[in-house]
Amino acid sequence: MKDNSVRTPVKIAVGIWVLALLYPANWLLTDEVDYDEGVQDSRVTDGDEQSALNGPIEVSVRGAEPPTEVQAAGRPKPKPILQPESERKLPESVVVAKGKQLFTMNCVACHQLDAVGKVGFAPSIGNRDFLSLATDEFIRQTIRNGRMGTAMAPRPDLSEQQLTAIITYLRSAPVANPVKVSVDWEKKFTGDAEAGADKYGRYCAACHGTKGEGYAAGVPGTGIGLPGFLSTVSDDYILQTLKLGRIGTPMQPFIGSRGLANLTESDGHDLIVYLRELGRKNVPGSDREMAVKGDPKRGKLHFDVNCIACHQADGKGKVGFAPSIRNRDFLAIASDDFIRKTIRNGRPGTAMVPRPDLAFQAVNDIIAYLRSLPIANPVEINVDSTLTFKGDPEEGTAKYTKYCAACHGNDGEGYLAGVPGPGIGLAGFLKSVSDDYILQTLRQGRIATPMKPFIGSKGIANLTVEDAHDIIARLRVMGEENAGGQAAGQ
Ligand code: HEC
Ligand code: HEC
Ligand code: HEC
Ligand code: HEC
Q1: Fewest Cβ atoms nearer than 10 Å: which of 53, 285, 435, 445?
Q2: Closest residue to atom 7 of ligand 2, CA basis
């Protein structure tokens, strides 16, 4: 496992360059954040406090004694694969601070403060036992590839440097009673799948789902029967987890006299062989299911597993963090196809990561769910996506600065600038919307969010349609600048 992924620096450099082109905004915005800023008082922290009040996410109080099970240390120093000259000499404390900041922006919504995780939602990855079993390369691959069919979306957009910082941060907390385990990443066990199935049903199914599907089945454990998990772990990783358990989580040791079920190693082998079989069966359904109608009930389940961490209960969003996607005006302006493409392609440079891994059926279910939520005073808005307006970007600059920058960022970079509005100057957003989508948003606003109508006498700024065309022209230029700047930023 470790050796497979050792590549030559040249290949990596080319890979990163290509990724930076594909995910340019993130390269520019996330990687270049000042090390000294935003770690203590970032906007995400504010958001977390808010979510503790009205969202489903539990957040532990900052500054409390960190629980011992999340402490980890004494691991070999992670070896950065590729770092520019300027990064190489950074003291560890700076890398840890940067890792913490990246973790806060990209991971905390699910893995929680100090990476303690939340049972039934996202595993603890600051866990002593997890960190002793997982190599840096394992964590790296998990972040890069995600776990297909779970909320753990792939993040090919994060640079090697950023991954190193996150891993260094995870490994930086001091550990009580450290354990040392070495995992064999090559060894394959043979066993009896049928006997394994029997034991799985008796000892594991209640917590990991009858098909190993994990959280999506409403159980406390992860999707250990899903191909995304099984393709990253070795047989021995699973065996060692069964011996060790995960301190501080419901996952107890199962093998040996200290084990919950006093299983033998050979029982473990049977279980592993059975899990491998489950993995082959659990390959997600094909996209040909597209024609199938979405089901709002199933959609709620998919939504709760994949989207709720950011978009909150019922998709009501959180200002400064993730927009409301059950919003009356949003749903009137956004077509199903628009929502589908946003889910598939994400919004590069923001926390909205692409989800090419979700089955069409799941995506259609989510859309059906969003559309099924009750709406007061529904409105109907027609967006003509074929229209293009001919505004003046130079005129638009002053108007954008005056009316929009405070909420969307000087360069339209959105939440990452610590402002309440999303990244409307980013290439990912601009590529997915028509001029008329933006115009109609300016006319209509987004009810019950800080985004008010701006055009006409009901609008807060009494802008004319021509003003709006100028602002749209300015946004289009911004999108190119952001994309171009990112490519040039190489
Ligand atoms: C939207 C929620 C979400 C976000 C955001 C998220 N994760 Fe995850 N992560 C999960 C879930 C759910 C799993 C477990 C999936 C499964 O196997 O069932 C997981 C699994 C993992 C694992 C494997 C843990 C194990 O026990 O094997 C690692 C490592 C990990 N995530 C790291 C990260 C990092 C680093 C980030 C930020 C860059 C991140 N995740 C962002 C939801 C999330
Ligand atoms: C009481 C509930 C419970 C039972 C029973 C249970 N597990 Fe777990 N298991 C969990 C939880 C919860 C986690 C994730 C730990 C966390 O949240 O950080 C986990 C994690 C794991 C992991 C690591 C997954 C990863 O993403 O890295 C493996 C492997 C695993 N369990 C295998 C098994 C097997 C095999 C059995 C049956 C012998 C079993 N578990 C029984 C709750 C359980
Ligand atoms: C008071 C703060 C504020 C101001 C001023 C503001 N916006 Fe917004 N805008 C928001 C918020 C917040 C949202 C996201 C709404 C939500 O949470 O659902 C938004 C959403 C939008 C969207 C939809 C984005 C998407 O992802 O679909 C567009 C387009 C937009 N604003 C354009 C503008 C323009 C152009 C201006 C200047 C004329 C402007 N906004 C001024 C706060 C503001
Ligand atoms: C890790 C956080 C996160 C997760 C998980 C997430 N999103 Fe998002 N989403 C965002 C952010 C942040 C934005 C706004 C990005 C921007 O600045 O344009 C967004 C934007 C969107 C938009 C565009 C809204 C608009 O106003 O134009 C849609 C639609 C959307 N997300 C749907 C989903 C769905 C469906 C899921 C689950 C499959 C999901 N998202 C999961 C963070 C997330």
Answers
A1: 53
A2: 251
For tokens 């100028």, the residue is 470
Cα 438 to ligand 4 centroid, rounded to whole Å: 17
Read off the pLDDT of residues 94-118 as tens digits, 9 standing for 90 and up. 999 999 999 998 999 899 999 999 9
Instruction: Round the average pLDDT of the chain to a whole number and report it.
Output: 80
Report the distance separating Cα 146 and Cα 158, nearest Å.
12
Name the DSSP letter for residue 415. G
Phi first, then psi, for residue 361 (nearest 5°) are: -55, -45
One-letter amino acid for residue 45 of the chain: T
Q: What are phi and psi for residue 112, nearest 5 degrees? A: 70, 165
Choice from 26, 111, 352, 407 to test ligand 4 binding pocket (greatest atom count within 8 A of CB): 352
**Backbone phi and psi for residue 360, each to the nearest 5 degrees, phi listed first:** -55, -40
**Does the reported pTM lie above 0.85?**
no
Given its phi and psi angles, is residue 63 left (phi above 0), alpha (psi -120 to 50 degrees) or beta? Answer: left
Q: What is the pLDDT of residues 5-63, one digit of tens each?
A: 445 554 555 444 444 444 433 333 333 333 322 222 222 333 333 333 233 333 332 33
Nearest-angstrom CA–CA distance, 45 and 50: 9
pLDDT of residue 23: 43
Rounded-to-integer distance, Cα 279 and Cα 261, Å: 24
CA of 445 from ligand 3 middle (Å) equals 7
119 lines ligand 2 (CB under 6 A): yes
Paired residues of 37 in beta bridges = none
For 92, the token pair is: 């560890």
Residue type, 68: T
CA-to-CA distance for 477 and 412, rounded, in angstroms? 11
Closest alpha carbon to 475 in 385, 412, 387, 401: 412
Confidence of residue 193 (pLDDT cuts 50, 70, 90): very high
Please, what are the domains in the chain?
7-82 (no CATH), 92-281 (1.10.760.10), 289-372 (1.10.760.10), 393-489 (1.10.760.10)
Q: Which residue, among 356, 357, 323, has the nearest Cα to 433 in the 3D structure? A: 323
Q: Is 406 in the pocket of ligand 3 (CB under 6 A)?
A: yes
- Secondary structure class of 185 (helix, strand, coil): coil
Q: Can you give the C-alpha Rg of the chain in angstroms?
A: 24
Grouping H, G, I as helix, E, B as strand and the rest as coil, residue 118 is strand
Minimum CA distance residue for ligand 4 atom 41: 307
Q: How far apart (Å, rounded) are the C-alpha atoms in residues 452 and 376?
A: 17
Residue type at 222 in one-letter notation: T
Integer angstrom CA distances of residue 436 from 116, 120, 224, 303, 341: 44, 42, 45, 28, 17
Across-strand partners of 118? 122
